[in-house]
Amino acid sequence: MESRYTINKQFMEMTGYYDRNGKLCALVTETGMTFIVDKSPLEIIRDNIVCIGYDLKGATKTARSLLGNIYNCPILVNPIDRIVIFPTLSPKHSECVWYNPVHIKRTRSLNRQTIILYSNGRTKLIRNKLAAFNCKIKQAEQLEDMTKL
Q1: What is the layout of strands, in order, in the sheet containing 83-87?
Q2: For position 53, what pLDDT does the model report?
Q3: Which side of the chain, N or C, has fewer Cβ within a 10 Å radius?
Q4: What is residue 149's predicted lDDT score, i.e. its pLDDT?
Q5: How far apart (Å, rounded) are the C-alpha atoms in residues 119 and 67?
Q6: How far is CA 2 from the centre of its chain?
Q7: Secondary structure, 3-state, 36-85
Q8: How far is CA 115 from the centre of its chain?
Q9: Is 6 helix (H, G, I), strand (E, B) or coil?
């Protein structure tokens, strides 16, 4: 278990994970490994954004002003490395999964669910409908494009 985590270019996804004491931690998947961080996903995101010099509310407000007042909007967590992540549910929900669209190479539908093919060759089946998930990917890509210097 890691005590802290910096979101980097290998970051693929992150979700909430309750440890054996019932504490909400984060299950982080990078291209080469999966591990647990002793902070919630929102704490990790907040810490990463603060290290760059702004806060989560400001990042969310900026994303909404650029993309429109959308729910569960993507967030630019690292403007230097151009890392934008997006949530599947409300960020406050413990089952929310945060994805990095850069590592999502293909999506396809299977029984009203979505299969994700990652850049490292792994696949994952999620409960989201394909059209809704692809819309979230597109919004994240638009935010990344709109915030280029």
Answers
A1: 34-37, 24-30, 11-18, 97-99, 83-87, 75-78
A2: 85
A3: C
A4: 66
A5: 26
A6: 18
A7: EECCCHHHHHHHHHHHHCCCHHHHHHHHHHHHCCCCCCCEEEECCCCEEE
A8: 17
A9: coil
What is the C-alpha to C-alpha distance for residues 129 and 109, in angstroms, rounded to an integer? 7
Structure confidence at residue 30 as a pLDDT band (50, 70, 90): very high
Query: Are the C-beta atoms of residues 120 and 139 closer than 8 Å to each other?
Result: no
> For 81-93, what is each residue's pLDDT tens digit?
899 999 999 998 8
pLDDT of residue 101: 97
Centre a 10 Å sphere on the Cβ of residue 117 and count the other Cβ atoms it contains. 15
At residue 103 the predicted structure's pLDDT band, cuts being 50, 70 and 90, is very high
Whether the CB-CB separation of 40 and 26 falls below 8 Å is answered with yes
Residue type at 149 in one-letter notation: L
Q: What pTM does this model have?
A: 0.94
CB atoms within 10 A of CB 24: 14
Token pair listed for 82: 């151009």
